[in-house]
Amino acid sequence: MTRRWILVAVGCGGDPDTGPVSASDVEEACTQFCERETVCEGPDDECVGRCVADQSPWMRTDAVQTLYACIAALDCDAREEAECGGTVAPLAVHRAYEANCRAAMPTCVEARFLETLCEVDYVADAPGEAGFVRLLAPVVVEALDACFDGATCDDRLRGLTGAFDHYGLD
Questions:
Q1: Of 125, 95, 127, whose CA–CA distance to 111 is shortest?
Q2: Nearest-CA neighbor of 19 among 51, 59, 53?
Q3: Who contacts 81 (Cβ-Cβ below 8 Å, separation ≥6)?
Q4: 101-151: per-residue pLDDT in tens?
Q5: Cα-flanking dihedrals φ and ψ of residue 122, to 5°?
Q6: Per-residue DSSP letters for 62-119?
Q7: Which helix (H) or strand (E) holds 61?
Q8: Over the Cα atoms of the chain, what is R_g?
Q9: What pTM was computed for the model?
């Protein structure tokens, strides 16, 4: 008789949660952030509420947790973006988005906007919000990526605008 062992690992560490961030995860991350703000800037009873309101529910859970944990650990005189911007790495879905964006959009937008739209890596001192897409949950990135299938630039841009509006991304 042969025994077969099946190992099931559920909730045992594994990969980080890359799905959309929950309200409780945002509140926890914002609380960490605001503790640092209190030390550095003084008490602010509205900090956590403002921070929570500013977070998109379409951010990756692991991205929010990583970014805010990094910021919370900084000295008061540190530049948050410069120190912590690169702590969140893009996933494979973000890389696919970037490749498709760079293939579909160069004739649709100016070169400087192409970087803002397509770049998924953190780039220090980049114009606009370059690299922002890496912070988005895969479900959102897949919806944005589908826009590149449009037959014309107008179709692609209209699709992106609709997707950005739908997900509340500015």
A1: 127
A2: 59
A3: 124
A4: 999 999 999 988 998 899 999 987 766 677 889 999 999 999 999 999 999
A5: -70, 130
A6: HHHHHHHHHHHTS-TTS-HHHHHGGGS---HHHHHHHHHHHHHSTTTS-HHHHHHHH-
A7: helix 61-72
A8: 19
A9: 0.81
